Amino acid sequence: MIDEHLDSLLSDRLAAIERAKSDGVKVVGYFPGPYVPEELVYASGALPVCLAHGGNAQVADRALSLLPPVICPFARAQVGEMLLKTSPVYKAIDMLVVPSTCQHLRKTGDVWEYYEATEVFKLGVPYDPGEGPALTYYRARLDDLRARLESLTGRTITDVSLGDAVGVYNRLREALRNISLMRRDALPAISGLEFMKLNHASLWCDPSSVADVLETVHRERLAAEPVARAGTPRLLLVGPNVAVGDYGILEMVEGAGASIVIEDVFEGVRDYWCDVRDGGDVLDAMVRARLVDRAPAAFMRSSTRPRFDFISKLIRDFQVSGVIWYELMCCEFYDQDAYFFEDRLRAMDIPMLVIESNYDDVRSGSVRTRLEAFLEVVRGGAAHA
Ligand code: SF4
């Protein structure tokens, strides 16, 4: 049933993108992470689409003619799609918004700007979140983005249209949150893979249509039978990125008889925990939702403790008994953090398995063997992952 909903959402979006091209409506692409405010793009009348396809080593390797292999496979996959031009979404981009959240995405934006001559907006995101100058700086970047979008679309973004857009995206976040929180149940009625695909659809389909589908799925699943059996190991998936199409790790986990019951993924999924609050200046509220209310990202200074605290809370709330640390090759932030998190989690008696992916090896026999050994530990066995 979820697959039927997804197929219909995706075909509607592709048709809307095609119509946009003939009707002169602009398509604005952006790289994932919670810092590009889709509400602004939506309020400008352009179609916001998150460029988050990945999981295919051949597409990522296509970028090796322009990028060195030290660039992570997710960032390379974006350039691969740009070069291949087989995706109607990547072909349709009139303007690209690139957040300064890591050097790999920065480089990807530079390559895109140079080779495609697409308008690229570089969105600076402060490294020191919280109160003070960081908020002023980020607010100024959003003011600039607002002006660039108005010039692209020829439409003024009023506070009313922006408030309406925030309402649309708050509804979408709430709908995702409601489905996600169902997974706190001892026997969840939705699998990790299903939730991931719904989350991915929310990144590039029409937000109102996705919210309709999510609310329907939530109602349906409240009355549905569980998808997991008693005794199934409950896992938290942590990582920088799970791209649209990068489903190997979720399929392997479910195939091995375990469940991903919650994710903490920085990019490639929508961050749905924090709404933009009502009242006051809308842009200021959007700034606070991203820099004050949400847990900081790995690239930010002093983020380790709040991120660990956030993960610890997820472990308690979702009764997690093991952590899969799914990092992409050459992703320095997550590579550097893995040791600390594994050590701290061990002190909580929560085992952690690190899997590094270059998109071509995640379904390999050695990963499967390590995963099975890890699940034995999670189940209380004697093997060492
Ligand atoms: S996976 Fe890591 S290196 Fe790649 S884009 Fe994400 S944060 Fe950057």
Small molecules bound: iron/sulfur cluster
- Strand element count: 8
Question: Would you identify the regions where 5 or more consecutive residues have pLDDT less than 50?
Answer: none
The percent range for helix content is 40-55%
Number of helices: 15
- Across the major sheet, the strand order is 2-1-3-4
Please report the distance between the alpha carbons of the first and last residues: 36 Å
Determine the mean pLDDT.
95
Which outline best applies? globular
The ordered string of helix (H) and strand (E) elements is HEHEHHHEHEHHHHEHEHHEHEH
Structure classification: alpha/beta
Rg result: 20 Å
Notable traits:
385 residues, binds iron/sulfur cluster, 8 strands, four-stranded parallel β-sheet, 15 helices, alpha/beta
Structure characterization notes:
With 385 residues, this protein is an alpha/beta fold. Helix content is 52%, strand content 12%. The strands form two sheets. Strands 2-1-3-4 form a four-stranded parallel beta sheet, sandwiched between helices. The radius of gyration is 20 Å and the shape is globular. It starts with a helix and ends in a 7-residue tail after the last helix. The model has no long low-confidence stretch (mean pLDDT 95). The site of iron/sulfur cluster has 12 residues, from helix 4, helix 6 and strand 5.
